[in-house]
Amino acid sequence: MEGKKIAGITKEILDKCVRCGSCRQVCPVFNVTHEEPSVARGKIFLANLINEGKAELDREAAHFFNLCTTCLRCAEICPVMVDYESIIISARALAVEKFGLPAEKKVAVKLFSNRKFLEALGKFASPLTKLITKKSRSPQNRLLPLEVPKLGKVLLPQLQSRPFNEKDRWYPAKGKEKGKLLFFTGCMFNNFYTKTAENVVKVLNALGYSVFVPREQFCCGAPAFFSGDLKTFEKMKEKNLEGLSSAEVDAVVTACATCGHVLKREYGELPFEKFELVELLFENLEEISKWKYPGKLKVTWHHPCHIVRGQKIPRHYPIDVLKVLRNVEFVEMPESDNCCGMGGSFKLSHPQISREIQLKKAKNADSTGAEVVLTECPGCVMNIAEGLERVGSKAVSLHIADILADSVE
Ligand code: SF4
Ligand code: SF4
Q1: Which of 75, 175, 189, 241 ranks highest by number of CB atoms within 10 Å?
Q2: Own/partner pairs for 201-206, CB < 8 Å, 24+ apart?
Q3: For ligand 1, which residues put their CB under 6 angstroms from it?
Q4: How many CA atoms lie within 13 A of 95 on its CB side?
Q5: For residue 262, is pLDDT > 70?
Q6: Do 288-407 and 11-100 fall under one CATH topology?
């Protein structure tokens, strides 16, 4: 049987897997399905068969390669450090080449890669969505008025009528300037969580950074990249690199785990460093220890997959920040680094499995008695907010910048 091979994935890469099965213990998808093709070992076995010409990448195989949140828990536990992320992206790329994007992924990729369309939709639909949806306990989010069979409550982030990066803007540092940063906002902050984007800027300014928010920035390309639509991803990357390469700043900062991971993994060398917000917060612990949240607050933390495993940022960074913030009590949730179930478009393609993973996360967060579940990724903020609604928790889901902005001196 001679079919097309998965490009860039050599026998050496695939043969690294010793089939030990450790990845079965940590895979959130396998935890729900208990089926071998859900887990890294099964997918690597399948990739090997395809590349050896013993099987074809047919629609069923494509389905199995999509059955993954790309949380990278398998890659982290793997004793031989199999490059699972490259294998899954390349396998998905071959699936897209053969069959095109599945419908739900096509919608996500088209929506986020077309800035004009997303902004026009915001202008037109934003007032309408406020009319037909209900407020969620977690701010900047809305709930559909009716529950959806088998899913329950459905939450959507509030689409804004004006994007955050409407035009080029400089926000000057408070006091002596430590450096100039370009804030790579990403689509979720530009079009949905604009209040959080303001809060990120406020926090960075208070820490002594001047912040530049350029108009000419686009979706980082993550929805296309993780779906295997590498042509669209390359186009998005090229568009962004034009603006990024000529910016006169000391560093670029993101406050979205996935944007940060994609920028660091796929954008190559830039004329300046790339930071995730939490890295800059950790560098400024002393300054943050002077800040005080207005009123006592008990919080817990969800580690986004693309921060702790994608970017390998130490888990203690955000915890140390929360521990020095006055009036804030930090309490750790069980399995704080397990995936929230979002996985980009995984939530759309596998709503039931995603829901099971999400409910586990929400129950773990709720068990701490925290009033706020914090994280540093707008996708996780949204999915956890929905999970908290579904389990009837009183807690709300926020981005770390939201409580820091309220605490700034
Ligand atoms: S943990 Fe690594 S070596 Fe073990 S089965 Fe999974 S991918 Fe293969
Ligand atoms: S990336 Fe996550 S969901 Fe995908 S196979 Fe690995 S552990 Fe499972």
Answers
A1: 189
A2: 201/171, 202/401, 202/405, 202/408, 203/277, 203/281, 203/401, 203/404, 203/405, 203/408, 204/171, 204/253, 204/277, 204/280, 205/171, 205/172, 205/173, 205/174, 206/174, 206/287, 206/291, 206/408, 206/409
A3: 17-23, 40-41, 44, 74, 77-78, 80, 82
A4: 25
A5: yes
A6: no
How far CA 7 is from CA of 4, 62, 65, 82, 397, in Å, comes to 9, 15, 15, 17, 40
Per-residue pLDDT tens digits for 309-327: 999 999 999 999 999 999 9
- Residue 39, ligand 2, Cβ within 6 A: yes
Residue 12 buriedness (CB in 10 A; 0-12 / 13-18 / 19+): exposed
CATH fold of 11-100, please? Answer: Fumarate Reductase Iron-sulfur Protein; Chain B, domain 2 (1.10.1060)
The average pLDDT across 73-100 equals: 97
Give this prediction's pTM: 0.96
Query: Which sequence spans correspond to the domains of the chain?
Result: 11-100, 288-407
pLDDT of residue 3: 77
Residues 46 and 128: beta-carbon distance below 8 Å = no
Q: How far is the CA of 23 from the centre of ligand 1 (A)?
A: 6
Q: Is 74 in the pocket of ligand 2 (CB under 6 A)?
A: yes
